[in-house]
Amino acid sequence: MVAPSAAEQHYMKSSMVDSQLDLLEDPVDETDFVVLDSSQSRENMLESVVQTVQDALAA
Fold first, then answer.
1. What is the pLDDT of residues 18-52, one digit of tens each?
2. How far is residue 51's CA from residue 57's CA, in Å, rounded to a whole number?
């Protein structure tokens, strides 16, 4: 017996994810957002977020 893959067990099919991504809008006229470079390591992204929050709290 072959176990189903994790993707087969997931409730959201890839086409649903694609449709959600298609609905994303650029943050025009928004000031409370952070852009993360997803090509960075998880640690670097976390460091960037922490620094951004610390800077915002210090202001």
1. 888 889 888 889 888 888 999 999 999 999 999 99
2. 10
Helix H, strand E, coil C: the string for the chain is CCCCCHHHHCCCCHHHHHHHHHHCCCCCCCCCCCCCCCCCCHHHHHHHHHHHHHHHHHC
- Residue closest to 48 by CA, chosen among 36, 33, 38: 36
Sign of the torsion formed by the C-alpha atoms of 8, 16, 48 and 53: negative
